[in-house]
Design goal:
Blueprint: H1 3-7, H2 10-15, E1 30-34, H3 35-38, E2 41-43, H4 46-56, E3 69-73, H5 74-80, H6 88-101, E4 104-111, E5 116-122, E6 125-130, E7 136-141, E8 156-160, H7 170-192, H8 197-204, E9 207-209, H9 210-216, H10 226-244, E10 247-256, E11 259-269
Antiparallel strand pairs: 1-8, 2-4, 3-7, 4-5, 6-7, 9-11, 10-11
Helix pairs in contact: 4-6, 7-8, 7-10
Length: about 290
């Protein structure tokens, strides 16, 4: 069945060819998401989550895609995941099926008047189409997810797509995005002012309760002992983040009584990662 050929003729694809970048451009590409999406609960595994992030990197926030559809090459997808085995196509199909059937974001938005959260459950993709005779994949986002990807006048976070390539745990990706959200604000207010010194430092040394950490990593019912939680949600993810991204991160455990109540992260940016060319302007903090 010629799904793409009928719905997205070659000429239409050529018009969107700028979104199917060469492999070298992965290093230049950014991902931009609203902070409410950054702090949402991503109920999906690593591979579907990384496919979603790769698709988001193809969105031009100044020129939103027509019909909420981006175009991706299979070549780039397989390179992003560093796979070249014979069953990569069947694995891709399985990951797409999982992304469509099981993956959702549980988004929490604070009602400032009632000082309580309001919740939304959103499926990220409406449709994905491809065929066996060319390199094109089309991915259509749901209309519900798009405001968190394109209507970004304030409260958004930007980070480099290349930082996600070698993260092999969903917890690594979730933590990296959370740390990026805080460090972006640290960089902005350090350069532009507008916050007291202790507030600025708090962005570089963000604190999160263990309870909130469990919520955002979707581990409320997992890793009952803190030692297990620390191993799989903190130690191993931070090893990956420190090895493969622009950050070096350590953390302290804060006790309340005899139990660990919260975690304080300490974020440093590697010198070789001073290039912020992937970022937009300062609209996120105006």
């Amino acid at each position: 069945m010629e799904i793409i050929a009928k719905k997205y003729p070659y000429n239409n694809y050529k018009e969107n060819e700028r979104t199917v970048c060469s492999l070298k451009e992965i290093e230049k590409r950014k991902i931009v998401e609203h902070n409410d999406l950054i702090t949402s609960v991503a109920k999906m595994d690593k591979v579907p989550l990384k496919i979603f992030e790769l698709a988001v990197s193809l969105i031009d926030t100044d020129n939103p895609p027509k019909n909420n559809t981006i175009y991706l090459s299979k070549t780039e997808l397989f390179a992003f995941f560093k796979v070249n085995d014979s069953n990569k196509h069947s694995r891709f199909k399985e990951a797409i099926m999982t992304l469509h059937q099981q993956s959702v974001f549980e988004i929490r938005e604070m009602n400032v008047h009632k000082n309580k959260f309001e919740y939304r459950v959103i499926s990220p993709l409406e449709e994905t189409t491809w065929n066996d005779y060319n390199d094109i994949i089309s991915m259509t986002f749901t209309k519900s997810i798009m405001p968190y990807l394109i209507e970004l006048k304030t409260k958004f976070t930007q980070y480099a797509l290349s930082d996600l390539v070698d993260l092999n745990s969903k917890y690594s990706i979730i933590l990296y995005k959370l740390l990026s959200m805080n460090y972006n604000q640290y960089e902005h207010y350090s350069n532009k002012g507008g916050r007291r010194a202790e507030q600025v430092e708090a962005y570089r040394n963000p604190s999160i309760t263990v309870k909130e950490l469990r919520v955002i990593t979707d581990t409320v019912n997992d890793y009952e002992r803190f030692q297990s939680l620390e191993t799989w949600i903190l130690k191993k993810p931070l090893e990956e983040i420190n090895a493969h991204t622009s950050f070096n991160v350590t953390y302290d455990k804060i006790k309340k009584g005899r139990s660990i109540d919260s975690i304080v992260f300490h974020i440093e940016k590697k010198r070789m990662a001073d290039d912020n060319s992937y970022k937009l302007d300062d609209r996120a903090y105006q």
